[in-house]
């Protein structure tokens, strides 16, 4: 599967650009099982990146529809990743920080209960919009300290309302978003959930508990476990010495599928993750380096990605837009310094 990749090549108002469309077309015929869009804003104020793709307005529908058509023509399933930056929203690009706690950002109060419910409904409305555009599903972005991840964190969420306090309350925002999407979009619309378990005060034991609950109720169709490194080992706590991945693959998952991302750069590593209990793997860097990574793996069980960093011209010749290349310059050790 293709992991969601923020490329910052959309129009400033969130409409998909010709560069977004070209990127989808390049990927569509590369034999991915599922292609996800970049993080797409569910509200204009939830923006975290300049030129971020949007799904918060009907003005976004024409571009999203073309992207969905390109993916479908290539034979893959498609999903829009739904995103709200929460306290990490960037005012310089129109973002309105929406922290769970009044202690997170100096001088900015926590959003009210009513504002949480409004953002919840914006996620649901954005999912319906993705469905109208022809996508097979959505992926709820619950990772990296963005708003849903933020509410799960006891460090970033000290609320006294129904969305704070106990784990059940801190997970309520995420659960209500997922349940609302299922209700509005129906049983055949795919729902994914992207989860990270590092930084931002997140607790592994808690996230395992809430994931077990979501698996047991089959609230989602798939879990996208976003790891910094898919081979990471837990360093402390009750799961010390186990791989982070195994903490989740050991859970009964009923009809839910589980995949992982995190430095999957070779055919061998992809195969190892399937052996370790994943139903699928998600590639990011490897897909940027080589659009048709799945075809390369299929043709060569010893395939390995080019070594990083690479020249900008290598990415350019592969079909990446200048906007996308500029974004990749911001990733540590991806584009060789000084290359034009």
Architecture overview:
This protein is an alpha/beta fold. The protein has helices at residues 18-28, 61-74, 113-132, 147-152, 167-170, 172-185, 204-217, 244-249, 267-275, 285-289, 293-299, 312-318, 322-329; strands spanning 34-41, 77-83, 137-142, 190-195, 222-226, 257-261, 280-281. It has a seven-stranded parallel sheet with strand order 1-2-3-4-5-6-7. Strand 6 (257-261), helix 9 and strand 7 (280-281) form a beta-alpha-beta unit. The model has no long low-confidence stretch (mean pLDDT 96). Residues 2-299 form the NADH:flavin oxidoreductase/NADH oxidase N-terminal domain. It comes from Flavobacterium rivuli WB 3.3-2 = DSM 21788. Pfam families: Oxidored_FMN.
Summarize the entry for a quick read.
The protein has 340 residues and is an alpha/beta fold. The chain has helices spanning 18-28, 61-74, 113-132, 147-152, 167-170, 172-185, 204-217, 244-249, 267-275, 285-289, 293-299, 312-318, 322-329; strands spanning 34-41, 77-83, 137-142, 190-195, 222-226, 257-261, 280-281.
């Amino acid at each position: 599967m293709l992991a969601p990749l923020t490329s910052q090549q959309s129009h400033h108002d969130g409409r998909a650009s010709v560069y977004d469309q070209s990127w989808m077309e390049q990927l569509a015929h590369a034999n991915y099982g599922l292609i996800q869009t970049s993080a797409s804003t569910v509200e204009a104020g939830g923006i975290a990146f300049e030129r971020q793709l949007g799904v918060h307005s009907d003005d976004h529908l024409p571009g999203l529809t073309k992207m969905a058509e390109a993916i479908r023509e290539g034979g893959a399933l498609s999903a829009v990743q739904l995103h709200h930056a929460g306290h990490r929203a960037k005012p310089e690009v129109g973002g309105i920080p929406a922290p769970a706690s009044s202690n997170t950002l100096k001088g900015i109060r926590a959003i009210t209960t009513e504002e949480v419910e409004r953002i919840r409904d914006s996620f649901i409305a954005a999912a319906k919009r993705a469905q109208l555009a022809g996508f097979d599903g959505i992926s709820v972005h619950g990772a990296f300290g963005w708003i849903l991840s933020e509410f799960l964190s006891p460090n970033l969420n000290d609320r006294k309302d129904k969305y704070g306090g106990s784990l059940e309350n801190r997970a309520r925002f995420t659960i209500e978003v997922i349940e609302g999407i299922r209700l509005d979009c129906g049983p055949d619309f795919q729902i994914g959930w992207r989860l990270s378990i590092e930084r931002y005060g997140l607790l592994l034991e808690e996230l395992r508990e809430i994931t077990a609950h979501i698996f047991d109720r089959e609230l989602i169709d798939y879990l996208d476990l976003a790891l910094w490194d898919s081979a990471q080992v837990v360093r402390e706590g009750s799961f010390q010495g186990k791989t982070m991945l195994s903490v989740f693959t050991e859970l009964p998952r009923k009809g839910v599928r589980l995949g992982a991302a995190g430095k999957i750069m070779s055919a061998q590593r992809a195969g190892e993750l399937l052996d370790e209990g994943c139903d699928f793997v998600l590639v990011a860097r490897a897909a940027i380096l080589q659009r048709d990574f799945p075809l390369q793996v299929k043709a060569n069980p010893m395939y390995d990605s080019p070594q990083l960093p690479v020249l900008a011209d290598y990415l350019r010749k592969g079909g990446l837009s200048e906007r996308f290349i500029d974004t990749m310059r911001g990733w540590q050790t991806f584009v060789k310094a000084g290359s034009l």
